[in-house]
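User: Structure tokens for both sequences below?

Assistant:
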Amino acid sequence: MDQARGTRPRLRTRHWAVAGVALLALSGCAAQAASDAGAPSASTATTESSSDGAGSPAEAGSGTAVQVGSTSLGDVLVDQAGMTLYMFDKDTQGGPSTCYDQCASAWPPLLTDGAPAAGTGADDGKLGTVERTDGATQVTYDGWPLYYWAQDAKPGDVNGQGVNDVWWVLDADGTPIHG
């Protein structure tokens, strides 16, 4: 009987570990499912867009900067704090964002209160904005709406690269880097 009780904590730990792995897998699937739903819904992401330098999203200020930073994938677009920016294959270049709800929870949009600014290595002529369904202004580069990956913890992380084969970093020309 004591031996049976002794295995219960291990089983609970194993169950929690399995649940954690399942939750991580579902977060990628939820982002895909939300994006596959078609037209954007009326609700929007509650997470904000730029980084406070600690790797966590924070509210963007006016003049949000996009620049080029060095990562393990080479030189890619990042925000002013060095957090990697991504594009979404389900978006249309020059069109609106299609990532809302659960998708935007996993992939917070890069928002701005003013005109975005080009930092080191970025082309000011490729910067733009698009209005989201809640009226927020999302930054674009070469027509692609820009996003963060919620699981990137620090500047230079590229953990979102290739998620569900639809999320990609962009080079300084605004070209998605696949692979």
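Moving on to the next sequence.
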Amino acid sequence: MADGRHGSRGGFVTFEGVEGAGKSTRCNRLVRRLESEGIPVLHTREPGGPPVSERIRKILLEPGLQVPPRAELLLYLASRAANVDLMIRPALEKGVNVVSERFSDATLAYQVGGRGLPVEPVRRADALATGGLVPDMVILLDLPPGAGLSRMQRQGRELDRIEMEKPEFHEKVRNMYLELSAGDPRYLVVDATLEPSLQDEIIEREVLKLFQSVGRDGVR
């Protein structure tokens, strides 16, 4: 466990996936489990986190608001830069583990995969926003986009600007996530059609192993 002693830093885990895949639910369950084990953890989200990022979130998700792809990218990155500088990096440096709903991989999936922006300029811009910070583990909740949108409709949720995109957009996002996960050892791909308790079991087991490793090895 990373607890800030002996110069050790916290571990950094992010949740990714298409709309309706269950990121918030699985993330909340994981955070509660970690807290029950006495493991220090910070829970954040993107877009969002500190107050300035939460204000940007409202702009990005407002239904009916026209946001061109490049402007959308830069708003997401502005939110991320503030989240990293004000919340994520300070927590990690104190030995607190961080669990975030979305991070850089979402930018590649949505702005590159979904919007079609060029990958290398996006990667460079994201690196500037994060200061080079990379998650230790990316948990991809994989789900066909149609199934995720059906879940939200059954829940009676009011869709935001991104959720209201055409099915083709969400398919491109999923395909990009799968492309990113292929051969990347940081990725834990979880079948989001499995029973929720089984998903939680898989996630909790792997995250606990990661945080124990970070605690032993120090800065990774």
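User: Anything stand out in the second?

Assistant: Residues 5-217 form a domain with the Rossmann fold fold (CATH 3.40.50.300).
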